[in-house]
Each structure stands twice: as C-alpha cells, then as structure tokens.
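Board notes (copied after class):
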Amino acid sequence: MKLEKLIKIHEDNQGCIDTANSDCNTNTRRMKHVEIQLHFIQQAIENSTIALVYTPTNNMLADFLTKSVCRPAIQRALTSLRLLPVGDRRDVKKNILSTHVSREAEEC
C-alpha cells in the first residue's frame, strides 16, 4: 500500500530509532519477542511509508496517559491537546483559563 504522505512517528527512545533504521539484525537475538514487528517497521521505513522522528520526552504529549508526570507537564499536554479537565465542564471559559500554563511555570 503506497501512501501519498509520509507518516511521521514521534519517538523519544533513540535506541528504538537506531534499531529500526539499522540494516543488520545483530540485536534481534535479544529481541525475539519484537522480531516480526521490527521487520514490519523496517519494511515501512524502506518503502518510505513511515519515518521515525526523534522527539524529546518533554515534548511527548501522551506521556501523561502512561507515565507519572508532574502537574505542569499535564497542564501543558491538556492545553496542547485542547482538552478540558473532567471535573468542571460547566464554565468552559474558566476551564480554558485554568488549564493555560504561563511561560513562567516551573519546568518538570
């Protein structure tokens, strides 16, 4: 299947990117559980269907769904994803202002 647009997959694990972009299979002896998936990804990269792009962990918006992260990181993600907090949806304007994180907010 040939797509007109290249699909970019943002990844914060440089080892994962290096393994997927590698031509040799020297590491697969230790990674038998991912061998089929690895070959699928390598074929997609070779066919220019996908590209793995390194993205620093701080810029990964979905991390708050799978990892323990600090409050400012959650607020940045919610703001970037344009999601409102579940607790108080009555006043949308109030929610938008409360989830906005100023540039002076403490970094995680």
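Comment from the instructor: Confidence is low (pLDDT under 50) at residues 99-106. Residues 58-99 form one domain.
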